[in-house]
Amino acid sequence: MSTIHDVARLAGVSIGTVSRVLSGNPATSPESRERVREAALQLGYTPNARAQSLRLARTGVIGLSISDVRNPFFADAAHGAEQEALAAGRVTMLANADEDSAIEARYLRAFRAQRVDGVLMSPQGGSAEGARSLVEAGIPVVLLNRTLDGVDAPVVTFDVRQGIEQAITQLRDRGHRRIGLIAGPVSVSTGRARVSAFEAIRDGLGLDPAPELVQLADGRRGGGADAAVRLLDLSPAPTAVLSSNALMSSGAFEAIRDRGAAVELVSFDDQDWMRLVEPPLSVIEQDAAHMGAVAMRLLLELIDGGHPRSVTLPTRLIARG
Question: Rounded to two decimals, what is the model's pTM?
Answer without folding.
Answer: 0.81
